[in-house]
């Protein structure tokens, strides 16, 4: 599903953000990626989304060698990826329904299907009753659930979450993690970058720990490694 073969990524300044990373994530896995600030986690996510390309080595996602994807092929490739970020990135002048429906319009889903799919996914994330609310009227946890619904409505094979609980209190963080777990149980591959040590330790999933651009540990049912 995801395979990195000796991948390095350098920006124009500084030491490499990723330095010889080899990594394989299978279909249906749930994986945490942890590590200090600056260890290369977001760079890894951006490579998977094809927002960046590697400096050397190969990145494969769902059978695509991302270096070989042509620009016009990128939108179609990204349809198979759902993504959520720490800062939600919602359309704040639109209501909840519109935020989720927007993702379906982009991929030209027929209106009749949008009218079916959006309420269904909002019910999955527990927001069925809030579909008319403007997103800025929602709590942080609710906003992240809207973002999750938007990421999922096109039924992606892989969900990438970059610090999804970074702006949430512990209760809301747990709610989002439980949803991610449910989504994974329904077959979606889930990759979560996080600094949330309590959640990582409690959930007992695969944990990949990065440091200065390299993977320093990769454990099934792992925990958060305390450095220093
Ligand atoms: N656009 C950029 N230009 C130059 N250097 C960058 C750029 N983006 C990231 N870096 C550098 O690459 C390294 C890895 O950054 P990255 O954002 O991948 O780390 P991270 O593990 O996601 O950190 P955090 O936990 O703080 O989000 C850091 O040294 C960072 O300064």
From TrEMBL:
Family annotation (PROSITE patterns): ABC_TRANSPORTER_1, ABC_TRANSPORTER_2, SIGMA54_INTERACT_1
Domain ABC transporter, first and last residues per copy: 2-228
Gene label: ftsE
GO biological process: cell division
InterPro entries assigned: AAA+_ATPase, ABC_transporter-like_ATP-bd, ABC_transporter-like_CS, ABC_transpr_LolD-like, Cell_div_FtsE, P-loop_NTPase, Sigma_54_int_dom_ATP-bd_1
Membrane topology: Peripheral membrane protein
SMART domains found in the cross-reference section: AAA (SM00382)
The protein's name in its UniProt record: Cell division ATP-binding protein FtsE
Record has Ribonucleoprotein as a keyword: no
Lineage: Bacteria, Bacillati, Bacillota, Clostridia, Lachnospirales
GO molecular function: ATP binding; ATP hydrolysis activity; transmembrane transporter activity
Keywords: ATP-binding, Cell cycle, Cell division, Cell membrane, Membrane, Nucleotide-binding
Assembly and oligomerization: Homodimer. Forms a membrane-associated complex with FtsX.
One Pfam family per UniProt: ABC_tran
CC annotations in GO: plasma membrane
Family: Belongs to the ABC transporter superfamily.
Task of the protein: Part of the ABC transporter FtsEX involved in cellular division.
Keyword Phosphoprotein appears in the UniProt entry: no
SUPFAM superfamilies linked: P-loop containing nucleoside triphosphate hydrolases
Compartments (UniProt record): Cell membrane
């Amino acid at each position: 599903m995801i395979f990195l073969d000796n991948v390095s990524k350098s920006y124009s300044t500084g030491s490499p953000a990723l330095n010889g990373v080899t990594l394989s994530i299978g279909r249906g896995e749930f994986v945490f990626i942890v590590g200090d600030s600056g260890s290369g986690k977001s760079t890894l996510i951006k490579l998977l989304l094809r927002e960046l390309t590697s400096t050397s080595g190969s990145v494969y996602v769902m059978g695509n060698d991302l270096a070989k994807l042509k620009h016009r092929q990128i939108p179609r490739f990204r349809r198979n990826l759902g993504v959520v970020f720490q800062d939600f990135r919602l359309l704040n002048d639109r209501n909840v329904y519109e935020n989720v429906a927007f993702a379906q319009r982009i991929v030209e889903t027929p209106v009749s299907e949008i009218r079916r799919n959006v309420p269904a996914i909002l019910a999955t994330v527990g927001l069925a009753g809030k579909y008319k609310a403007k997103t800025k009227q929602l709590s942080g946890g609710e906003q992240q659930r809207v973002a999750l619904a938007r990421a999922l409505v096109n039924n992606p094979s892989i969900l990438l979450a970059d610090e999804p609980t970074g702006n949430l209190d512990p209760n809301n963080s747990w709610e989002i993690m439980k949803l991610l777990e449910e989504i994974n149980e329904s077959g979606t591959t889930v990759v979560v970058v996080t600094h949330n040590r309590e959640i990582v330790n409690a959930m007992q999933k695969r944990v990949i720990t990065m440091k200065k651009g390299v993977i320093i540990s990769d454990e099934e049912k792992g925990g958060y490694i305390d450095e220093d």
